[in-house]
Amino acid sequence: MLVSAKEMLNKAREGKYAVGQFNINNLEWTKAILLTAQELQSPVILGVSEGAGKYMCGYKTVVGMVNGMLEELGITVPVALHLDHGSFEGAKACINAGFSSIMFDGSHYPIEENIKMTTALVNTCDVLGVSLEAEVGSIGGEEDGVVGAGECADPDECKAIADLGVTMLAAGIGNIHGKYPENWAGLSFETLEAVKNKVGDMPLVLHGGTGIPEDMIKKAISLGVAKINVNTECQLAFAAATREYVEAGKDQQGKGFDPRKLLAPGFEAIKATVKEKMELFGSVGKA
Ligand code: 13P
Fold first, then answer.
1. Atom of ligand 1 nearest to the CA of 23
2. How many CB atoms lie within 10 A of CB 154?
């Protein structure tokens, strides 16, 4: 059964580790992430962007697929199904479809608007036991057409949003989605510390997990980050493994064209990436 992300993130914050949010795109992605979490006895959050939700036919299809897998793969570790960077309408649609966790990303609105819209979702989520992530200070880079500049959040604005009663908070600290450019300045731990001092015990979320050096990940966790989002890195691993298979001509040998064979190396590559991240985040054995 899907669970809210609240309990797993509070435990992570107290235990000084982070739970990974891995974005899903299809059956192979979902199965690879769930099986790895089960093998490593780690809690996990499946992230679904609005674009990925559409790609998979819609939120109900996603909920049906994930619930079916939890049962038929015998998954017993805590799993949350989470809308990533949701709009207000998207958040409502996912709550109705049966998601157990929602991100409402109001970071591109003026702070008063962000507060108003986040407030409108707090009660509904509370009553239904759905966890709610809010965002202040947009995360840079491009994700599903949403482009942000990689700002550092204003700690007072973070407090204003945290005080509304959200479950977890994503604050921009110079992080960006996708690959980091050569001249990236790194995470702003100064901002992270200032945010942490204002919001107290609220679990913080680090977006743009792909390509952040290990020492920065560990420092971020020590400063209150309890959820780390990874998307691009699984895509790169899947693409590289699939390319290798095709370039080696394996799709032209025997029944190598069978999708269950063709997609297997990419599937294994996602599993390896997720394992590496769970070990780095410290969530192994924490289910
Ligand atoms: P990356 O694609 O950079 O790993 O970021 C993922 C993310 O933050 C999803 O919200």
1. 9
2. 18
> Ligand 1 pocket test: which of 22, 147, 177 has the largest number of ligand atoms within 8 Å of its C-beta?
177
CB of 210 closer than 6 A to ligand 1?
A: yes
Q: Is 232 in the pocket of ligand 1 (CB under 6 A)?
A: yes
| 53-111 confidence digits (pLDDT tens) | 999 999 999 999 999 999 999 999 999 999 999 999 999 999 999 999 999 999 989 99
**C-alpha separations of 135 from 20, 69, 130, 183, 265 in Å:** 17, 30, 17, 25, 35
CA of 102 to the centre of ligand 1 (A): 16
pTM: 0.96
Q: Whose Cα sits closest to atom 9 in ligand 1? A: 229
Task: Give per-residue pLDDT as tens, 154-170.
Answer: 999 999 999 999 999 99
CA 148 to chain centre: 17
C-alpha span between 38 and 26 (Å, rounded): 19
Active site residue 154: no
Lowest mean pLDDT among 3-7, 104-108, 257-261: 104-108
Q: Measured in Å, how far apart are the chain's first and last C-alpha atoms?
A: 14
Q: Is 173 in the pocket of ligand 1 (CB under 6 A)?
A: no
The secondary structure of the chain in percent helix, strand, coil, rounded to multiples of 5, reads 50, 20, 35
Residue 230 contacts residue 22 (beta carbons within 8 Å): yes
Report CA-CA distances (Å) from 109 to 67, 140, 192: 34, 15, 21
